[in-house]
Input
Amino acid sequence: MNLSIIHVIHSIDPDHGGTTEAVRLLAQTQDSVKTTVLSSDDPKTGWGSDWPCSVRLLGPARTKFGWTPNWEAGLRDLLQPGAVVVVHGLWQYHALAAAKAARASNVPVLIYPHGMLDPWALRQSRWLKSAAWWLFNRQVFRQAAGVCFTTEDERRLAAPMLGKIQGTQVIVPLGVEEPPDSTAVLKAECESAHPVLAGRRVFLFLGRLHPKKGCDMLLQAFARWQGTDDPGRTVHLRFVGPPYAAHFQEELERQCEELGLKIGADISFAGGVVGRDKWRELAAAEVLVLPSHQENFGIVVAEALACEVPVLLSDKVNTAPFIAEYGAGLVADDTVDGTLQLLQGWSRQSADEKRVARRQARQLYVAQFAIQTARRRFLEVVEVAAAKGCR
Output
């Protein structure tokens, strides 16, 4: 039986960050496995044209729910013996369409919630999600051969929603690729492209600018740090990533003005980056700061570790226990006080302590988050689902 993996996702827009990148990385399996990615995106975007697998864009989606009449036809020729459908994300039409088509063709389904069953996430648009759960998502889960969580914390937080659903719950950590060059080379390239960063201690936020990621808290904590701690004056706080909406970056820029932070000197907003430019930003950073209120995995965390960059995380990032265990950074509450604790705590560490944290960051990447480990575990779970067949 030839194994075929069909990844379905609402969108592979690069600006969506972690989930898109997770699908791209998991789609690079091995030559003996046929892999196809389907999304509700408009084919005119061209997204996925450089991915190492077949990509079908079935949109444009006609509603926020992601409905498009093309899902059934897009899936039909793929649902053959040996196929496994992997649903990424919930609450939108792709999950329902893929599950219905798979059931009709007797093909097993695996589900990656990607943090969407976290209590914090469920409180956002609560009534719409509640309706979607009872109308169709509950049935999608009942049909699932397995539910894939990227960390044990994600599984634990999702447990109340899963109830008596029978699908096997498995931990399948995500992984990231190696940087494309040495950290020293990438850092030099970044400082050459952005002279304002040369010689500065760069504290980096990398990801979508979104309220859930604590961007406003980070600005408040940074302003307080600069006002009370002399080391804070030597640090440049750099936000790299697209805003989830144009007005949000404008709000952050107004907040900088109110806090007395000078954009260009104390703070910079670099916009979205991809490919080598992303790795340059990471390599140039002293630390990555991610004070999120909810973060399923945080692929950027693994990318920072690959570059020997320690991370300062809130305890709501589900990879935080790894950081604490390995000493690859610091963890605190997802509050302004907690974020300030991260900034001050890192700055007060000795040079030797910081060197140890950088070494531990790399060791954690190799041990837990290298892409080869993640793909091997993912394929094991897919093969088990294929062997068992449809529920």
User: Anything to note?
Assistant: The chain has two domains: 4-175+371-388, 183-369. Residues 183-369 form a domain with the Rossmann fold fold (CATH 3.40.50.2000).
